Amino acid sequence: MAATKIQKQVQVLATYKFNHTARICFTVRSSNGSDKYNTCFQGNGHESCGCPSKGGCYHRDQLRPVAQAFLESLKVAQRSNAPLNQRNSGFSLMR
Ligand SMILES: [Zn+2]
């Protein structure tokens, strides 16, 4: 724990949000730049990542706050029954 960690920055290539199943997935570029991994989080706390480091990795560490914010927003939306797309209505009205 005391060892200095090299700060790696996760490069997210794509984000997939599943509103109905409370699940969010990211396609991330690996640190060597040539591979792609899928990092997924679910509302029940399940996490997975396709990278070789099992049992925890910087992909999950850095994306977890983003995933949790999304999963929390789903819960809030369900609780308050507010439509999720309401905040984007200003943009979707442009024709
Ligand atoms: Zn990973």
In short:
The protein has helices spanning 58-80, 89-92; strands spanning 11-18, 23-29, 36-42, 47-49. The protein is of the alpha+beta class.
Description:
- The radius of gyration is 16 Å and the shape is elongated.
- It has helices at 58-80, 89-92; strands at 11-18, 23-29, 36-42, 47-49.
- Residues 88-95 have low confidence and may be disordered.
- It has one domain.
- The protein has two helices and four strands; from the N terminus they run ββββαα.
- The protein starts with 10 loop residues before the first strand and ends with a helix.
- The chain has a four-stranded antiparallel β-sheet, with helices on one face.
- It is α+β, with helices and mostly antiparallel strands and 95 residues long.
- Strand 3 and strand 4 (47-49) form a beta hairpin.
- The longest helix is centred in the last third of the chain and has 23 residues, at 58-80.
- Zinc ion binds next to strand 3 and helix 1.
- Zinc ion (ZN) is lined by residues 37, 39, 49, 51, 53, 57, 59-60.
